[in-house]
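Narrative progress, year one. The postdoctoral researcher (J.K.) led the effort to move from monomer predictions toward full complexes, under supervision of the PI. The following entry was the first complex the group processed end to end, covering 595 residues in total.
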Amino acid sequence: MAQIQVEGLTKTFQIAKRRAGMLGALAGVVRREHRELVALDAITFEIGQGELIGYVGPNGAGKSTTIKILSGILVPDAGHCEVLGFVPWRERRRYVAAIGVVFGQRTQLWWDLPVVESFDLLRSIYHVDDASYRRTLDEMVSLLDLEPLLDTPVRQLSLGQRMRCDLAASLLHEPSLLFLDEPTIGLDAPSKLAVRDFVKRLNRDRGVTVILTTHDMDDIETLCERVMVIGDGRILQDGSLADLRERVSPERRLIVDLEDPEVTLDAPGARVISREGPRWELAFDPRVVSPAQLITQVASRHAVRDLFVENPPIEEVITEIYDHGGLAS
Amino acid sequence: MRGSTLYRRMVAVSIRAQMQYRASFLLLSLGQAGVTVIEFFGIWALFDRFGRLPDWTLAEVAVFYGVVNVAFSFSDAVSRGFDLFGQDVRQGDFDRVLVRPRSSLLQVAGSRFAIHRIGRLIQGAVVLAVGLSQVESQMGPVEGLLLVFAIAGGAALFLGLVVLQATLAFWSTETLELMNTMTYGGVQTAQYPIAIYREAFRRFFTFVVPLACVAYFPVVAVLGRPDPLGSPFWFQCVAPLAGFAFLFASFGVWQIGVRHYTSTGS
């Protein structure tokens, strides 16, 4: 059964127009003109228990607005949505007790308090009983390696450390659904890996449903079975990463390093994308020419030092979807 | 954990956080006390120069002054979170409040506790005590209770004003100084007996923003003197209830505001 059901969700913001100059500012005080910004234009989707979903889109596409409506922060203008059997904005307090939310941009912890005291305060806020609090906390401490951080005031933590603590904080009440809004933003490589690893385990071992927004395509590639792409307030694509690639462009890439940098590569059925010295990057459609055929032909005509086939980078796929709504050209 | 217990814990946390910056706390408290001392000195100077207000002695005015300032300092300490709420809204920090399963009012109130307001509290209490010792009427248990009731009602009223001011932040992200004329202006107004003002002004502060109900009327009863405005004794005793009614009304407006919250970009 669907854990999240969203139907025709619409949200419009009124943006005050600002006029230029001092006179303009004064005029704005007296009479303000508004511009309508459609953040969500009747989006519809369903998410099942235990899914790990990547929710991506360019800045201003409506990602955050969706997350904020789903987590009970914003009230939509139209449409219906039911999460865990609740209408988020109508039964806010009962609903948010059952979910976890992490904003990468701002911490959930108390700035001047040691981490462990923030956790303890959250325990009170969420009415977590002592036994399960201690069990969950122990688990989090070992999974996220928090032991050395517990007595440090939050303001002294590095961004990566803070994110690990924020993840733990959002799970102390053992929610079955977790919203992660850009959890890897600004993190260094080891911290990103730690966060990804943790999210993966959480989803796999505990069946927690995770909805992840990110601009980091590695997050999507390593974590998400399903990706929803949003642009201009509409869901442009929804499916597995493989599906998206297929729909956007079935092309693969063949990268060939020739022995002789002077030679011009001759590869029938493939299109040259770039050339850098002896390295050639080709695009081909596997339905027209199979990878084996292409490689055989290249190898029979040229002295090849190295060669490999890969998918177009996920960034390109996603950008293609942003630009053209994901319709295969 | 019940709401009140949670509130106390959040306040304790806020106080502990402020104590980490000890010098700042001491200076702020001193500053608060200093400002109010100078303020009362101003009133005293006026009396000294121009004699008494018609019908009111300096000691009596000191009682009005004390009640209003003690009430305001309570509300000010508690309402710091609402005071700075516009900032929370602009920075999107209110999101965090809404994703927690507790009353948003309780969380905003608990987010900051202005312990340095203790300076104003002490100064107000001293003026109140001195004023009471100088007035002619005798203080009995009834008068004592009525004073506590008036101060509680006054704190509720000021808190309601600050909640209303904070609620405006849901509609306009610009700072609204308008409400400060009600809070700080209200304190300035109600530290004198309201009977000295014009009628329209008195009506406003009785029926719209019921400052007179939490300061003037109960204090007149405490002073044991007839009201030049002619209000009956029973009314003077129940008048502070208006402060609580105002507070509850402001809570209602707040709930409407929360539904209009639009958060920020990301």
